[in-house]
Amino acid sequence: MLLQEIPKKEDILAAEKRIHDYVHRTPVFTSTQLNEMLGVNVYFKCENLQKVGAFKMRGASNAVLSLTKQQLKKGVATHSSGNHAQAIALTAKIAKIPSYIVMPQNAPEVKVEAVKKYGAEVIFCESNLMAREETLNDVIEKTGATFIHPYDNYDVIAGQATCAKEMIEDTDHLKAIFAPIGGGGLMAGTLLSSQYFGHKIPIIGAEPQGADDAYRSWKAGKLIQMENPNTIADGLRTSVGERNFPIIQDYITDIVTVSDAEIIEAMRLIFNYLKLVVEPSGAVPFASMMKTAEKYKGKKVGVILCGGNVDLKKLPF
């Protein structure tokens, strides 16, 4: 049954069970050298090692698997610049149902090719929200497919919440968890898992300065749409969703914004010390953590590396 309200503890537990065979329980890494450099014990939840290379597989699979048999027959559709697109496409392939993915013409080639390899039909559109929505509506009208929103969907939020739940279970006494904010699905899920499973661990939002609508919305107490985002972190350029924002407003401790230069430095350090490749969006939480490291001297903090889908020919460091 599709969720119509903010996920409860039992909804997240049900999501965890539902997606168990569709996702990896990703590892938590740490680096002695990085810890010594920062004076903070940092634990990295490696969602860059998740299926499709990003946390998006959690929410997408939970939402798809929550559909009725009748809905599944007609398939699923979405609009996405990459990671959610891949997650919907792979889930649909495993479930043996059709999938239709609307992608902007400037989506990273590595992500477009991955979506196609999973068997989805890709429909390109102009690189703006209006074009995405209009193209998607045309697809749904023609196919009868069910729209799975990339983040503004309670079943997606419940699926994303399993990431922080695992991290809380696999680490002890975290004093904070840093997670990215794009559309807000992962952040909303992280906040809920902190409330239900983590004794209300402080959750710190991480956002690029060139796409800081969540920070400005949080400060203003109302949703402010992102216009003309300008950041290397392509996965975080979207505006926060209407279902996500109230959860963020109620539970988040702080939001820290970072420059593209700080994001690139975080990517470089993750590569050098953890031997992991993360996409710019995946490095934003670590960049935010480093910017506020003085607050956490000698403490344990968690950082969610949300994705690793980057074109190696275009690494910025």
Describe the structure.
Helices cover 45% and strands 15% of the residues. With 317 residues, the chain is of the alpha/beta class. The protein folds into 2 domains: 9-55 and 153-314, Rossmann fold (3-Layer(aba) Sandwich); 57-147, Rossmann fold. Helix 3 packs across helix 5 (83-95) and helix 3 (56-65) crosses helix 8 (154-170). 56% of the residues are buried.
Describe this protein with a few key phrases:
317 residues; alpha/beta; Rossmann fold; 2 domains; six-stranded mixed β-sheet; four-stranded parallel β-sheet; 15% strand
SSE topology:
Elements: H1 9-18, E1 28-29, H2 32-38, E2 41-46, H3 56-65, H4 69-74, E3 76-79, H5 83-95, E4 99-104, H6 109-117, E5 121-125, H7 129-143, E6 146-147, H8 154-170, E7 176-180, H9 185-197, E8 203-208, H10 213-220, H11 245-251, E9 254-258, H12 260-274, H13 280-291, E10 300-305
Parallel strand pairs: 2-10, 3-4, 3-6, 4-5, 7-8, 7-10, 8-9
Antiparallel strand pairs: 1-2
Helix pairs in contact: 1-8, 3-5, 3-8, 5-6, 8-9, 9-11, 12-13
